[in-house]
UniProtKB/TrEMBL annotation:
Species: Ligilactobacillus faecis
GO molecular-function terms, A-Z: hydroxymethylglutaryl-CoA synthase activity
The enzyme's E.C. designation: 2.3.3.10
Keyword terms, alphabetized: Acyltransferase, Transferase
Domain of life: Bacteria
Domain named Hydroxymethylglutaryl-coenzyme A synthase C-terminal: residues: 264-350
NCBIfam families: HMG-CoA-S_prok (TIGR01835)
Domain Hydroxymethylglutaryl-coenzyme A synthase N-terminal intervals: 2-164
Pfam family for this entry, one: HMG_CoA_synt_N
Name of this protein: Hydroxymethylglutaryl-CoA synthase
Family per similarity comment: Belongs to the thiolase-like superfamily. HMG-CoA synthase family.
InterPro entries, A to Z: HMG_CoA_synt_C_dom, HMG_CoA_synth_N, HMG_CoA_synthase_prok, Thiolase-like
């Protein structure tokens, strides 16, 4: 059976801040953010967007009426959940107008959970090949103003339709995983910003990558030479580059240059959006598919998923014959965003909806299809515009 990603959608807010300007405001050399961290722009998420609306906006961009008839599983992976009980997927399925005879749930394991969702969806489609599953990674990365993590914030969602005989990428049965109880990044229940031991986290990420990639090669007999591209979770693009350098260290210079060129294509969207947490690896995939000019059907792509806390997985996918026809062009979505200055970004950051029983939000300046209009009697009010 050939199961995998049939469609890929992406949504981020209409606002961004320039990293060079943020660096100036923080009295830091801009090259630290632009080169040292590898980020050029950062999505600024207004209070009218949250994990629910980001997820719904990403999914609405890909699903058709025909898909809606077949979707019977909705998984939303997030670490920016809006409720301790009710899943983001429950809201999203209603906003999208999906059928009621379906399963909906939310998954959490930091930035890794969308990969778990994808693998669970693959199992579901193996049992029900005539159905489709919607898997979405939706998050807002928040570390706090003037913190070390600030330049690695961002937000958005990636939606994936999983189906039998997919148009884009067939997921292979070759996953290798590794888990341990690690305190590298966490967010206590009442906190709206993550706590992170940044350098420790970066080290654990590389350590877990080395472990799963070595075991993957032992178990499959494949090496880095067998991949057209290696894709990484990108909390910031420099982190993925560091892992890629580990993977290609022993390759010949031509293959090294080829994998570096594909990595360049895969980081284009993250570089101007920032960290998407759960969606980040799949934004790298989308960026590669839409920006690389050398991909061919049959090419093998390697995907490294990492979620602090910590869980890692490496697996591969094979590009399908008509993958190009199933793609959009998200460079336009990103190019048409509006720049906000650092003061405005700070104001928006502080106006994030806290735990409030009643508040009305001004939705007039948010052009998204789905928005959060406020909260009434502790119930979040979502609107389709
Ligand atoms: N020009 C070019 N590069 C520069 C520079 C300059 N003027 N100044 C600094 N740099 C480089 C540093 O050498 C370093 O590169 P390296 O990592 O290759 O050594 C990089 O910029 C970052 O500098 P550093 O001093 O380490 O930054 P920091 O202490 O402010 O922290 C992070 C950076 C990424 C650790 C921090 O932003 C963070 O914790 N982010 C969250 C991380 C995260 O998301 N973790 C969990 C998910 S996996």
């Amino acid at each position: 059976m050939n199961i995998g990603i049939d469609k890929l959608g992406f949504y981020t807010s209409h606002l961004y801040v320039e990293m060079a300007k943020l660096a100036k405001a923080r009295e830091v050399d801009p090259n630290k953010y632009l080169i040292g961290i590898g980020q050029e722009k950062m999505a600024v998420i207004p209070p009218t967007q949250d994990a629910v609306t980001l997820a719904a906006n990403a999914a609405a961009s890909i699903i058709t009426k025909e898909d809606m008839e077949k979707i019977d599983l909705v998984i939303v992976a997030t670490e920016s959940g809006v409720d301790n009980s009710k899943s983001v997927a429950a809201y999203v399925s209603r906003l999208l107008g999906l059928r009621k005879d379906i399963r909906v749930l939310e998954l959490k394991q930091a930035c890794y959970a969308a990969t778990a969702g994808l693998q669970l969806a693959k199992g579901h489609i193996a049992l029900h090949p005539d159905k489709k599953a919607l898997v979405i990674g939706a998050d807002i990365a928040r570390y706090g103003l003037k913190t070390a993590g600030e330049p690695t914030q961002g937000g958005g969602a990636v939606a994936m339709l999983v189906a039998n005989d997919p148009q884009i990428l067939a997921l292979q049965d070759d996953s290798v995983y590794y888990a341990d109880d690690i305190m590298d990044f966490w967010r206590p229940l009442a906190a709206t910003e993550a706590l992170v031991d940044g350098k420790y986290s970066a080290g654990i990420y590389l350590d877990f990558f080395a472990k799963v990639f070595a075991r993957y090669q032992q178990e499959t007999g494949l090496t880095a030479n067998d991949f057209k591209a290696l894709l990484f979770h990108l909390p910031y693009t420099k982190q993925g580059l560091k892992a890629l350098r580990v993977a290609i260290a022993s390759l010949d210079p031509t293959k090294q240059a080829q994998l570096l060129a594909e990595f360049e294509a895969s980081k284009q969207y993250s570089k101007v959006t920032g960290n998407l947490y759960t969606g980040s690896l799949y934004l790298s995939l989308l960026s590669l598919l839409e920006n690389s000019t050398s991909l061919c059907p049959g090419d093998r792509l390697g995907l490294f998923s990492y979620g602090s806390g910590a869980q890692a997985e490496f697996y591969s996918g094979i590009l399908q014959p008509k993958f190009k026809e199933a793609l959009g062009d998200h460079t336009k979505l990103l190019a048409h965003r509006k720049e906000v200055d650092v003061l405005e970004y700070e104001k928006i950051f502080e106006s994030n909806l806290k735990h409030e029983s009643d508040r009305e939000l001004d939705i007039t300046s948010d052009p998204a299809q789905f928005v959060l209009a406020g909260v009434k009697e502790n119930k979040r009010q979502y609107i389709k515009q």
